[in-house]
Write a structure and sequence with these properties.
The protein is 32% helix and 21% strand. By secondary structure, it is α+β, with helices and mostly antiparallel strands. It has one domain: Ribosomal Protein S5, domain 2. It has a five-stranded mixed sheet. A hairpin with a 2-residue loop joins β1 and β2. α1 runs parallel beside α2 and α2 runs antiparallel to α3. It is elongated.
Length: 137
Amino acid sequence: MSPRAAPPVVATGKRKTAHARAAFTRGIGRVRVNRLPLEVYEPAAAREKISEPILMLGDRWKGIDIDIQVGGGGLSGQADAARTAVARGLVKWFKDGQLQDTFRRYDRSLVVNDPRRKLPKRPGGRGARKRRQKSYR
């Protein structure tokens, strides 16, 4: 057996091009994002977004250590991906369907990945929708 055993619960989340993986183990209630404690993770808006499902749980999460690895996308997308991973992992850890219903009623993107993506740029303009103006007429 390897010296580092696999964590009991692993959950993932995605948003745009950002992806997150959260590993849950028994512990003292420590939450880390990319090896950084959640309390010092910046920006503050991302920190609050990631801690949403944890705060909804109350004190039940105190015996769990959560290690979150995020990558890709921007800060907001990473925060959304991380909160989805945390919420899914908590549902898996507690094996609680009622918790999943609570998360889903609060915000569906807590337990379901957001499928929206950026529309690709098309010819004839500067972006996906914007077109060059005509000067005649």
